[in-house]
Amino acid sequence: MAAGDGDRQWRSVPDALMSAWGDVFDASQEGETLSAPCPVCGATTLHRWFDRHRADPRIIAGLPWWGQGSQWQWCSSCRCYLHASGWVPVWWETAIEVDPSTLTHTPAPIEDVIERMR
Ligand SMILES: [Zn+2]
Q1: What digits encode the pLDDT tens for the residues 30-68?
Q2: Closest CA relative to residue 75, chosen from 93, 48, 113, 51
Q3: Mean pLDDT of the region 3-24
Q4: Which residue intervals of 6-81 are DSSP H helices?
Q5: What does the alpha-carbon distance between residue 33 and residue 29 come to, in Å, rounded to a whole number?
Q6: Structural contact between residues 98 and 115, judged by C-beta atoms closer than 8 angstroms
Q7: Cα 44 to middle of ligand 1, angstroms
Q8: Can you state the percent helix, strand and coil of the chain, rounding each to 5?
């Protein structure tokens, strides 16, 4: 870890921007890196990652889902993040493999893997 990284704490997405944050992620099917700017800081460093738990294909609200899992959404610049359990969309594909035993509430272990791939 580089000097100073300890000062850059992960934090929740501000309530006032939660709706805008959700809209950006709802509109994207780009995979783990989004092209849209972060609603909080404006940097184009938004990421997401789904952890697949259990296949259970179904249609909900007209959209096809792979099954159950959990998702992280975060910005590498301002370190705002969101983590929740839910449905994994069928379009989700990723080359990023994260050791499940390292996963935490924050996206730090996933971010580490992405940074190592750069
Ligand atoms: Zn940001």
Answers
A1: 999 999 999 999 999 999 999 999 999 999 999 999 999
A2: 48
A3: 85
A4: 18-26
A5: 9
A6: no
A7: 8
A8: 25, 35, 40
